[in-house]
Amino acid sequence: MATSSTRVVVAMSGGVDSSVAAFLLKKQGYDVLAIFMKNWHDESVTISAECPWLEDSYDAMLVAEKLNIPFQVIDLSNEYKDKIVDYMFNEYEEGRTPNPDILCNREIKFDIFLNTALKLNADFIATGHYAQVESKEMDGNKVYYLKSGIDKVKDQSYFLCQLNQFQLSKTLFPIGSLKKDEVRSIAKDNELITADKKDSQGLCFVGKVKLPDFLQQKLSKKKGNVVLIPRDLNLYDNFKNKEYDNDDSNGYLYEPYMGKVIGEHSGAHYFTVGQRKGLSIGGMKDPLFVLATDTNKNIIYVGEGENHPGLYRFSLRVKKTKMHHVVGKLNLSNSQSLSARIRYRQPLQKIDVKLMEKYYLISFDKKQKSIAKGQFVAIYKGDNLISSGIID
Predict the structure, then answer these.
(1) Percent of the chain having pLDDT more than 90?
(2) What is the CATH class of 220-392?
(3) Angular region, 140: left φ>0, alpha ψ -120 to 50, beta rest
(4) What percentage of the chain has pLDDT greater than the value 70?
(5) Does an H or E element contain 384, and which?
(6) For 35-72, how does the pLDDT look when each residue is reduced to its tens digit (9 = 90+)?
(7) Mean of all residue pLDDT scores within the chain
(8) What are the sequence ranges of the domains in the chain?
(9) Which residues are catalytic?
(10) C-beta neighbour count of 68 within 10 angstroms
C-alpha cells in the first residue's frame, strides 16, 4: 500500500479508464488529486459541432466527488493549439500524415501537465492508459521500461512511444495490468458514473474531428489532377531491393506520365496514403485508394482495389535525428528479435534495422500497407517499446 503522503495527480478525461485509475490509486492509499485538461476553445477553427469537453469535465467532476478527491480544471488551450493543432496543419500542408495523439502525450500530458502536477507537489502523475512501466537497476542507476498493456486488444503503448526516462519515472499506469472488461466491472461495482460510457474517439482530449472540414478551415482549396496508376507497372517488380538503396534515394516515386488523369481533387494536402473516401470518382470496377500525394505538383496518385501493389512496401526509413530511444541510445542495427508497428492496434511485425549515414532503414519481413510519411513507427523488443521515429 502507498502512503497518504505520496501525492498522485490523475489526468481525468471523463472516461471509464481514468475514472478507474483514480479509484485504484485512492484505494491503494495515495493522496490523489484529479485534474481535467481543457484543450480547445479556439472559435476560429471548429473541431466539432459537439462540445464533448463540457460533458466530459462534468463526468470527471462527478467521479472525483464520488471518490472524495479534489478536482480542478486547467486550461491548456493555447499550448494545445501551438503544439498540436498548428503542427497538424503544417504536416498536412507538406503532404505528411501526423499522429496528434502521440504528440499530445509527448507535448501536453507528459510535459506541460506533468510540470503542472510537479508544481502541485506531486510525486507522480497517472493516466488511464493500457500500458505498464517497469524499472530495473543497471550499473547503479534505475532504468525505466515502457511495456505493453496486459490487454493486447487495448494496448496503448504505441501512443506513448515518444516518452523519455524522466517522464516514465514520474508516471503510473494503474490499469495497465487489467483488461478492459475488468476495468468496466470495477467501475460498475463501485457505481462510477462512467462505467458504461463509450470510449472516446478523435483527437486527444478534444473529441471527434471531421478531418476534411477541419483542414479546409486553414488550408486553401487548390484543384489538381487525380492520376490512376496501373496495377502492372514494372516499378513494383522486385522493388524490395529498390526502395531505399542509399541515403539519397527516394524509394519509388510516381510521375504523371506513368498513369492517366481520371479526375480532379480540391487539394493534395487533404489526402493521405491509403485513403479511400473523399475522391468522388466513379465508374471503376473496384474502389480507388490513394497511393501517393505530391503537394508540390498538387497531384494525387491512386490505384484501383485494396490489393493494388502500390499500397504495399517492404521498408521505411527514419532520419537519425528523428529517432527517439526510450531507454538510452541503442544500436538498433545490432539488435535481434525486433518488431514494429506503424499504427495503433496493428499486430507487431518482424523487422530488421540497418543504420545508414543519415537514416535508420527499417525492413519488414512482410509487405506493409499504407505507410505514410509523418506517421510514427514504434519499435519493440518483446513487450518493451524501445524506440520510435517519424517516417520520412
Answers:
(1) 66
(2) mainly beta
(3) left
(4) 88
(5) strand 384-391
(6) 999 876 555 555 555 556 778 899 999 999 999 999 99
(7) 89
(8) 7-214, 220-392
(9) 104, 204
(10) 8
